[in-house]
Please model this.
Amino acid sequence: MTMWQDVAPPRSSAEGGRRFRRRWPHRDLPVHPLDSRRLAARRSTAQRLARRGTLVAVLAGVAVCAVWGGVHFGKRLPVFRVDQVEVEGTGYLTQDEVRAAAGVTGAVSVWEDRARMAARLEDHPLVESAGVERALPSTLVIRVEEAVPVGLVASPVVVAVDRKGNVLPLDPADPLLDLPVLRVVTSLASASWGMRMLARDMARVAEAAPEVFAVLSEARLGDREATLLLGDSGLRVRYRPPISQRRLRDAVIAINDAYKRMPDRGLREIDLRFADQVVVRTAALPAAEGGVGG
Model:
């Protein structure tokens, strides 16, 4: 029995070795009923979720507006009106001056901007830093760090200055201002930086050697050195500015040791101008003949 088999016609030479592919025309098949139902269900779910999301967003916005409005108008209630101010850290400023500087006058709510009140306080020349806290419902607590006066300067009226050389609005006749007189004695050091340097040194003395600052009557700044006059004894401490805490300690040790070992010699000068040396001079020995190194 003979088996017939279709034999493809030979490929022309122009077609080369390309494989023969039959392209079937695209046919639009009908959508399955189940697919249409699933698609409709998905669309319905998406629409419900979108509506719910919109509703939640609207409700959240309404709630935020309600809360903001309640807080905003609640702050204006009379119960939050400041009727007491507690001031801490002042020694020169009165409570009324602090309230006026902070702007806490008249009918002020305890919800006023605390940063703004602190900034107003820090604009005052006697205030270095300030902070404001609330004690609900109607109390403000104001903490102040005052600028500390370190000396009196005649320019030409006698005024008090702080460690930066800034003039402070204080009465120099106030008994609390038992301060040394600061002098700049040469034209070279008469610039503003000279007074600022001397004022910084006095603040360092007050912090590192309060026993020396307590008896300090005058501080003079020259071209290359500064001199401290201690009390009525005539004792001088000479140094090259700026003075360090270590050199201040050296001076205190030398003074205590000299009074202990030479109580009758009449201590006159502590010289800190030479590096790593402390020269002690007394009334019994001329200054040119040297002294006792410490």
Summary: The longest helix spans residues 33-74. The chain has a mean pLDDT of 80. The radius of gyration is 43 Å. The CA atoms of residues 265 and 284 lie 6 Å apart.
